[in-house]
Amino acid sequence: MRTLRGLLLPTIGMVAFVLLWEAAVDVFRIPSFLVPAPSAVYEELIAFPGWYAEQTAYTAMVTLAGFVLAAVLGFLFAVVITESPLLDRLLFPLFVALNSIPKVAIAPLFLIWFGTGALPKVAIAFLVAVFAVVIDASLGLRSVHPDVLDLARALRGSRLKVLLRIKLFAALPSLFAGLKVAMALALVGAIVGEFVSSQNGLGQVILSAQGTFDTARVFAALTILAVLGVALIGAVDLAEHLAMPWRHRSVRRQRPRAAAAERQLDPAAERQLDPAAERQPDPAAERQPDPAAGRRPGAAAERPPGVAAPRQATG
User: Fold this and answer.
1) Are the beta carbons of 220 and 41 closer than 8 angstroms?
2) Is the domain defined by 56-243 classed in CATH 1.10.3720.10?
3) Cβ neighbours of residue 20 under 8 Å, at least 6 residues apart?
4) Which whole number is the average pLDDT over 219-239?
5) Where are the domains of the chain?
6) How far is CA 4 from the centre of its chain?
7) What does each C-alpha distance from 65 to 102, 127, 129, 152 come to in angstroms?
8) pTM above 0.85, yes or no
9) Residues whose CB is less than 8 angstroms from the CB of residue 52 and which lie 6 or more positions away in sequence, other chains included
10) For position 273, what pLDDT does the model report?
């Protein structure tokens, strides 16, 4: 039921957005060369389905190649800088400096070095995506508690065993978070590479349609890119569920327990859930005796020992 609800709500939102877009173009009479209607974008897509599929496959291939390189080499680099403080101080500043350079400025060099094929686009996608993998993987590898590492060393665990059996499992949540970001960035890098020089791909489709003011074709390519990005990130999310099934099961179990514990710790929240609880008398207050209940009329209250009675005024 929860999965169906998770799919239904985004679908409703997307359909509502498309309907509002179509209505806005029709009501405000927006020219088609500025913003085309969704119906015009759909007609463009169904007019050349095979050609769009070919361009999408090329962009997806470049994206996946850059992503795989970023995932493998980025994780290995994260292992190196976390296992060796000397290499961390030596290499990480250079890595940050390289990442600070705009990739569009490096793209012409890649064309000179690797030619005009798919290799320079893969290199740009790799450079754009690798930084996210390195940062999140290194944070995950460093997240192991020092006491756990001391215990592993006391049990004569080798450095490789500690890395594979302790640090790797501790780094999986952060690693997959970085992989999701890296997948989106790899797609961006592939499009940037196709903008610079390419005869194929969705980036080349957008660039060529821009010169002829064919905005319907531009929006068609953007729509395919959006669907492709969601599909690729969804594939990484599926891999995360398969690699860490225990984590998602524990999260589902902890949600109702956390809600129950929060209600027990917050009486105000309990009263909001049950307004009749405010009207119920407190049994402890009913059991407390009233000091004046058993006293005779006119009798003075009992005085503590050592306290003299007050003097009465005489007339």
Assistant:
1) yes
2) yes
3) none
4) 97
5) 56-243
6) 21
7) 20, 12, 11, 37
8) no
9) 45, 205, 220, 221, 224
10) 47
